[in-house]
Design a protein that fits this description.
- The chain is of the alpha+beta class.
- It folds into 5 domains: 1-91, Phosphorylase Kinase, domain 1 (2-Layer Sandwich), CATH 3.30.200.20; 94-284, Orthogonal Bundle (Transferase(Phosphotransferase), domain 1); 380-436, Trypsin Inhibitor V, Chain A (2-Layer Sandwich); 442-505, Trypsin Inhibitor V, Chain A (2-Layer Sandwich); 510-628, Trypsin Inhibitor V, Chain A, CATH 3.30.10.20.
- The strands form 11 sheets. The protein has a 6-stranded antiparallel beta sheet, with helices on one face. A 3-stranded antiparallel beta sheet has the order 7-9-10.
- The protein is elongated.
- The chain crosses the membrane at residues 350-370.
- Residues 12-282 form the Protein kinase domain.
- Residues 572-629 have a biased composition (Low complexity).
Length: 629
């Protein structure tokens, strides 16, 4: 069994599991030869002998190997290890588009268009090679750290050149992004991918899919029975031209959609232009040939497969023959007349059986034909309470109980959910319970002073805060330490969208520490003033510096603290030079002191530090000594 830690074909070392799917598991691995990280997709062990799955797995490799595009995940290698098939793919460090939408919604319209143009360019490349993806959805679109979109998972892609007789009407794509023709059981075309791209664009603009329901069949039915909801009703700021791209891409009739992904990209590129500001709403032409009108005694075969319903119906072309409800007795007219006497009991049993059969047929027809209710509950999620009431009133429904819940997704006063759920069929006049957002979850701000900024900022952003950093180069605290916070500790606030400013100690500019051995007190103070330094000193301020910390040449930042020791005075005693360990005579000291005093005088005159009297200096030195003790 393949698992993390193994090395495939003495080359690919699996490090961890990235994901597990119905067909294969994906691992992060390291290519030991090319020294790079890759993603390895390994066909599940229980599917190794499934010919259909093997065919799909190999199809993904063959389909993607033909494609060389910056917005399509590349396939590097195909192999087999311990009897298990695997693909080696480009590793995309980031997330998928579904997660990206959830984390960054609302997304600026320009960024939405930029993402879609990347995706459309990749789809056009696949279509140019006669490859239809068939399962386009945000989960199959990866977004790397540089916000580059890459389409993955061509596992159910179908080549247009494949023999149509080998194709089945099974619905393998995701139902939320499924085209109406696929829901009816027809073969997918380029326009089927265009429809899925329109649904993806809808989700990027609204943060949700257009159709939801209690089952996959319910959602699939909506795709070919209901129009895609208006994105401008969700957000009136969306330009009409941008909404028209969604409407045209998701037209029920494939012939009214964009002829290609490239055409959709060109239309999308100008959707924010001022010249299209007054563009009318796109209204698809009403066609009568969405499929021949026919009486269906059952759901289309595609929807039966989708719902996993076990039925014995036989399918021939577009005709669905229902299984017989009950067998009836038909006499053989060619058989010789045995002239048996009629059996009243047997006749009665046959009549009962016939009556039951007729009743079952009628019940079945009524269940299929008659609606379960009068109206379907509209989608009011994200609406204000007044908007939701108006929408429900138009649908001939009332408002039941109203309860509140905290929500980081919906603003205060917006509808979070309904009971019954959206799309449920109920009687006209029924009451619908609403769950209303009371706003984001409230968070008690902690005391972050003295903590490390990077850790605090990361935690606060996860809570929903917007964190701003203000640097303080004059602090003596270690760089990166939080000095102040704009929101007081202990205050309870709604974290989502709240801005908190943290003042952080900064190292400031750096410089090399000078040699202070020829500086007297005034010279040291002037140097410190020029470099924004804090000085701690010991000894008599009438002498020269005999020791310094940091040492000469050490890299020091603005705002740092330095320590110096002054000689006790100008005597004949020698002093130790902290920088080179040599001993100077008193005469040389006196000469150095005179030079130092002249240097210090010029230094002090150019600085803001006042010259201190001898008595004041001694008092300050004494005070500093007491503080040091």
């Amino acid at each position: 069994m393949i698992e993390p830690g193994m090395i495939l074909d003495e080359r690919y070392k699996l490090t961890k599991t990235l994901g597990e799917g119905g067909m294969a598991n994906v691992y992060l691995a390291h290519d030991l030869i090319l020294n790079r990280d890759v993603a390895v997709k390994v066909l599940r062990l229980d599917l190794q002998n499934d010919k259909g799955t093997l065919r799909r797995f190999r199809r993904e490799a063959m389909a993607t190997l033909e494609l060389n595009h910056p917005n399509i995940v590349s396939i590097y290698d195909v192999g087999e290890s311990e009897g298990q098939q695997y693909l080696v793919m480009e590793y995309v460090h980031g997330t998928n588009l579904k997660t990206y939408i959830a984390q960054h919604f609302p997304i600026p319209y320009a960024k939405v268009i930029a993402f879609m143009k990347q995706i459309l360019s990749a789809v056009q490349e696949a279509h140019n090679h006669n490859i239809i993806h068939r399962d386009l959805k945000p989960q199959n679109i990866l977004v790397d750290d540089h916000e580059t979109a890459k389409i993955a998972d061509f596992g159910i892609a179908v080549a247009l050149s494949d023999n149509a007789n080998t194709q089945t009407n099974s619905l393998l794509g995701s139902v939320h992004y499924m085209s109406p023709e696929q829901a009816r059981g027809a073969l997918p075309t380029r326009q089927s991918d265009i429809y899925a791209l329109g649904i993806i664009l809808y989700e990027m603009l609204t943060g949700r899919v257009p159709f939801e329901g209690d089952s996959a069949v319910t959602i699939a039915l909506k795709h070919f029975q209901e129009s895609v909801p208006s994105v401008r009703e969700f957000d009136p700021r969306i330009p009409q031209a941008l909404e028209n791209v969604v409407l045209k891409a998701t037209a029920k009739d494939p012939n009214q959609r964009y002829t290609s992904a490239e055409a959709m990209s060109e239309d999308l590129a100008t959707s924010l232009d001022a010249s299209r500001a007054n563009e009318p709403v796109f209204v698809p032409k009403v066609e009568d040939d969405m499929g021949e009108t026919r009486v269906m005694t059952d759901l289309p075969s595609a929807l039966r497969d989708l719902d996993n319903a076990s039925r014995d119906n036989t399918v021939s072309g577009n005709t669905i023959a229902p299984r017989p409800v009950a067998e009836t007795y038909v006499p053989d007219t060619d058989a010789p007349d045995t002239k048996r006497k009629p059996n009243p009991k047997r006749r009665r049993n046959l009549m009962i059986a016939a009556g039951v059969a007729i009743a079952l047929v009628l019940i079945t027809v009524l269940i299929i034909i008659l609606p379960k209710g009068d109206v379907s509950i509209p989608d009011v999620k994200g609406m204000s309470l007044s908007q939701a009431r108006t929408t429900l009133d138009k649908a001939k429904l009332g408002v039941g109980d109203e309860t509140e819940e905290t929500s980081n997704k919906y603003s205060k006063g917006e509808v979070i959910s309904t009971n019954p759920n959206t799309g449920t069929s109920v009687k006209s006049g029924s009451a619908v319970d609403l769950v209303i957002s009371s706003g984001g979850k409230r968070f008690k701000v902690g005391d972050y002073v003295g903590s490390v900024y990077s850790d605090v900022a990361s935690d606060l952003r996860k809570k929903g805060f917007t964190v701003r950093k203000r640097e303080d180069t004059g602090s003596t605290e270690e760089a990166g330490t939080v000095l102040k916070q704009s929101i007081k500790a202990g205050k309870t606030v709604v974290a989502k969208g709240k801005t908190i400013t943290l003042t952080v100690a900064s190292a400031g500019e750096s410089f090399k520490m000078a040699d202070l051995s020829k500086y007297n007190y005034q010279g040291v103070m002037g140097y410190a003033n020029d470099h924004n330094l804090t000085v701690k000193y010991t000894g008599a301020t009438t002498g020269l510096v005999v020791q310094q910390d940091p040492a000469i040449g050490t890299t020091v930042h603005d705002g740092a603290t330095i320590s110096v020791t002054f000689a006790s005075g100008y005597g004949t005693t020698s002093r130790s030079n902290s920088t080179n360990g040599t001993t100077q005579s008193s005469s040389s000291q006196q000469a150095a002191g005179q030079n130092s005093r002249s240097q210090a005088s010029s230094s002090v005159s150019s600085s803001s530090a006042p010259a201190a009297s001898s008595s004041q200096q001694n008092e300050q030195s004494s005070s500093n000594d007491e503080q040091g003790e």
